[in-house]
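ARCHIVE RECORD
Type: protein–small molecule complex
Small molecule: inosinic acid
Source of inputs: curated submission
Record status: active
Notes field left blank by submitter.
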Amino acid sequence: MNDVSEKVARRQPFEVLLDQEQIARRIRELGQQITNDYAGQTPVLIGILKGCVVFLSDLMRSIQLPVELEFVSASSYRNGIVAEDTVVIGGGVSISLKGRQVLLVDGIIDSCRTISMVHERIQKEEPAGIEIVTLLDKPASHRRQVKIKYKGFSVGNDFVIGFGLDNTQRYRNLPFIGRMID
Ligand code: IMP
Ligand code: MG
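STRUCTURE (tokenized, with ligand):
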């Protein structure tokens, strides 16, 4: 942990789970892997707002290929009547995805509801391929079967924040991943 991480973490209700160095190293590896896998192509990166932003901005700069960038937004909220969260997909992709190689980029995958809804929506546009990229995955929380080809780290079921991820819209700007302590 560097000095800044340590100072911020000491006063806050979280502890550092993944520090800046670890994250940066892993993102470079993912970028290299994508660069190799998509050699000669121009993939379309579709970020799922808002949790993707910090990860995606680092990841895209680690990919040594031409890429195009689009965003969709997704928000989930707990539904009082039904046990499952409701996921609302918003925004739109302004280019044709037909025949394109698409990478869906998220900050964290938990139950897989969000990513599978976005996947379904994008699939309708008949891309040549869709793969999923996420910085963090909570494999023990999955409620759907989803193939995640590019994953930064697997984490446990604790609530994590920072590097784009929020707790009630706070902490997205922390440069590391923290684990909330309750
Ligand atoms: P899903 O359950 O896979 O659909 O994920 C829903 C959304 O919940 C994710 O895109 C995140 O925005 C949020 N989420 C799930 N777990 C965490 C967490 O530990 N920290 C911050 N956000 C989370
Ligand atoms: Mg959130």
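CURATOR ANNOTATION: The helical segments are 3-10, 20-37, 53-61, 113-123.
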